[in-house]
Amino acid sequence: MQVFIVGAGPGDPELITVKGQRLLCEADVIIYAGSLVNPALLTLTKSGAEIHNSASMTLPEVIDTISAAVQAGKTVVRLHTGDPSIYGAIQEQMDALQKREIDFEVVPGVSSFLATAAALKQEYTLPEISQTVIITRNEGRTPVPEREKLRSLAAHQSTMCIFLSVHMLAEVVAELVAGGYDKTTPIAVVQKASWPEQKIVRATLETIAECIKDEHIARTAMIVVGRCLDADYALSRLYAPEFSHMYRTASK
Ligand code: SAH
To answer: What pLDDT is recorded for position 252?
Structure first.
């Protein structure tokens, strides 16, 4: 195997997987998503490695670079932020590689919505509050199917992690309220989760605009909405003393 599509994690260089780190150290050619991947990860690369920033490349350029490296017998790491399966635009790369009969492996990563939960010290799936996490985005230059508009998803009142939308926060809040979330629903905005400059703003749908206006958060931020953020939840059955399961019998 010569080509690896690797999730770099949310920012903290220690949050790449052990496997991803090993592949990064060994790679001859690295193509990284320069807009978000922490450049500190690139210090792990071996001397003489060829490093490309995909921010200034087109899809054909990325594929040509990978293809040329493979033909030269080199190994390639295509480094994506977080986990590559989430807003990573990797499908088109994988399909193009398959067309050229270039074999590859995908190595998952810690997505930023998970680093955000860690930053908030929050479980997204609280018993009797929400057992569902919706990963979505507001419509931008990339359209969102009608049935998945924030307004429709809001009807479920589940925990929502909204990517790529902090620059449209007012519109996001308006859609969520129009869709059924009460104005008192808690919301958190986490910028650069796991980076040294991580910033957290907590408010409600009603107050977030005011609370965030002096923070200058225009990008690289996750919006989390849902009652889990302030809930009076039921205790989990998993650790309840009177509850038996496969690995533990109930105490009397
Ligand atoms: N594949 C990535 C997401 C890429 S889309 C992942 O799994 O995390 C880019 C969006 O991800 C940003 O607009 C922002 O909403 C979110 N994001 C990426 N890194 C982040 C971080 N460290 N903290 C908060 N949000 C982040």
So the answer is: 60
